[in-house]
Structures are given as C-alpha cells and as structure tokens.
Recover the amino acids of this structure.
C-alpha cells in the first residue's frame, strides 16, 4: 500500500530556501510542498511566480495549523536554533540548514530537546552527496590511493564586495560547516585543531580561513574557505601512499538549481558530471581520469520523509552537526589565541 506524501513546509525564501530547498522538496515524490513562512512581499512575489500552488504563511504556527508535518529552516544563521525549537514545540519534524547552530552547546541543547519530544530532527549537510565527495569515498573503499595521509578541501570564491557570509555567521561557520562535516565523515574523530581566520577591515566576521585537523586515525585534514580568493585552489586533493586524487571544479548541482533546473526536470541526468569535470589520480608524471559518482542531493528529502514516517533514520544525524560545531568552536579559539587546541574526549 502506498503511503501519503509528507507535508513539508519551508521557513525562509532567500537564496538557500529559494534555490536549494524549495526545488528539492517540490521534486521529491515522497513530499508535498505545502508552504513557505515569509512575511517579505518580495519573497512572496517570487514564491507566487515560481511555485504558484504553494501558500505563504506568516508564522510556523500558521504553517502547522495548515497541516504541515515538517519544516525546513533556511533563514539567517542566528535564527536557526530559535526557529527549530519553536517548530519542535509545535510537533513539526525539522530540517535545519547549516550552520546548525552558532556554537556546540546551543546545538546540543536543541538535539536533546528533539530527542525528548520524540520528533525527527536533521541537518541539511547536502555536501555529503556531492559527486566529488562520493567519488573520494569510493576511492578510499577500493584502496585506489593506498593508505590516506592528507585530505585537502576548499570552498573558495571571489566576492570582492561584502558577501553572503554574514547570514551564514561568517566564513568559518558557513563554508566550515560543510568542510568539517566531510572530513569527519571520511576520517573520523579529531584530536587537535589549528586555525587562522581573516576579515576585512570594515567587517566584524571572518570571510577567509584555514583549519588544520589531526584525526585520531592519523590522517590530517587541511581545510580552506574564502569569499575573497582570486585564485581558488583545487576543490579536493586527497593524498595516499600510492597516489593523489585531484578535483579542480565544484560539484555542479548548485549551479543547476540556481539556473532553474531540478531533479524533476533532469530525471536520471541529475547530478551526472560531464567527463571534462572528472577528477584524476596522479602518480608522479602519470595521470588518469576517474569517472565521477553521480551527485545525489535529490536523495535527501526522500530519506527525510522516510524518517518522518518511521521507516528509516534521518539522512543526517544531528549529533554529527554537534561534533562539527565542537571542531569549529575549537577552530575559533585557536584563531583567536594563536595556538593548537586539543579536543576533550
């Protein structure tokens, strides 16, 4: 017997809500996109144009009263936890955009609240389903690189004017939430953290950072994020004892969504990287292309719907987000005091 779709709403219709969450919710057969919480006349106009059958609401309470079962929160970073707690109190299952919280204690408190209420809570770590990340995971499993020694990962863009990092809580929280999450997923717990952050003279938050992680497994992760890097480095460089995997460009699912394409319009072509975008394994002067795994951002909301129906785990365990925030908190301390920080166990 087929089940009814999970009725999912969205809080916020800015860049992330409009370009990432709305089309992916609307594309998922397991979900019904029921409405957006926004009071902005401009955002409501965009919603009416892009999703004419989807209602706008003034509040989470109004969304819940209209029959929503879950909500995705895509609002400025400082509002994620207050809105998540409000939604949980209304009995709504929650997807929180990253950064999950501004610090680990706040995130931990919200996860405990969800567990006490028995309401599903997940975090939108969509970069776990990037083509390049999935390819790295495959190469680690099949031993193509030997024993891994160093993981280098970058999200670097060139935005000379003040950029969207403000809404994300600064570059360290914005890009760092993805970079640290990927490193922890691949290589496990972290023993020590060293970080450097930089900011423009006219801004109070960082927009350029470097973080070095020493994993208990012995791998070292070097992570860069920047809104003002005029010469971005390779997206990934993963070094092992028998070779190095390098990817220059960024997974193309984001660009596809911004351009108005979606899993609903692309079907089985969604997330497929063209051959010219594939990474390569290098062994000295020898270089060989590596077919990329298909990017699968389209699987997040179906998996979340399964969790809401009690038919599977949430796609991202919120305790993983707390673990990432502990690393990011340590990185902030390291950058402030200029020292290596050892994480408590």
């Amino acid at each position: 017997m087929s089940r009814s779709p999970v009725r999912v709403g969205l809080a916020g219709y800015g860049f992330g809500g409009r370009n990432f969450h709305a089309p992916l919710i609307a594309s998922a057969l397991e979900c019904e996109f029921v409405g957006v919480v926004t009071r902005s006349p401009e955002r409501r106009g965009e919603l009416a144009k892009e999703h004419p059958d989807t209602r706008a609401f003034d509040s989470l309470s109004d969304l819940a009263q209209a029959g929503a079962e879950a909500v995705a929160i895509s609002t400025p970073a400082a509002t994620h936890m207050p809105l998540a707690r409000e939604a949980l109190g209304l009995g709504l299952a929650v997807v929180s955009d990253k950064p999950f919280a501004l610090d680990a204690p706040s995130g931990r408190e919200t996860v405990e609240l969800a567990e006490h209420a028995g309401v599903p809570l997940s975090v939108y770590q969509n970069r776990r389903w990037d083509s390049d990340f999935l390819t790295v995971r495959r190469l680690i499993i099949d031993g193509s690189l030997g024993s891994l020694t160093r993981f280098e990962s970058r999200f670097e863009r060139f935005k000379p004017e003040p950029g969207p990092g403000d809404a994300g809580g600064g570059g360290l929280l914005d890009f760092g939430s993805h970079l640290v999450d990927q490193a922890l997923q691949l290589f496990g717990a972290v023993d020590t953290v060293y970080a450097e952050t930089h900011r423009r003279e006219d801004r109070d938050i960082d927009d350029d950072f470097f973080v070095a992680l020493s994993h208990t497994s012995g791998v070292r992760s070097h992570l860069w994020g920047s809104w003002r890097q005029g010469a971005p480095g390779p997206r990934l460089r993963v070094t092992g004892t028998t070779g190095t995997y390098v990817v220059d460009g960024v997974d193309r699912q984001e660009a596809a969504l911004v351009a108005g394409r979606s899993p609903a319009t692309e079907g089985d072509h969604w997330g497929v990287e063209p051959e010219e975008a594939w990474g390569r394994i290098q062994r000295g002067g020898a270089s060989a292309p590596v077919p990329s795994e298909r990017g699968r951002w389209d699987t997040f909301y179906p998996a979340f719907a399964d969790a809401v129906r009690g038919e599977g785990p949430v796609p991202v365990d919120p305790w993983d987000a707390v673990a990432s925030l502990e690393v990011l908190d340590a990185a902030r301390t390291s950058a402030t005091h200029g020292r290596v920080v050892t994480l408590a166990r």
The two ends are 47 Å apart (CA to CA). The first helix runs from residue 15 to 27. The CA atoms of residues 300 and 315 lie 6 Å apart.
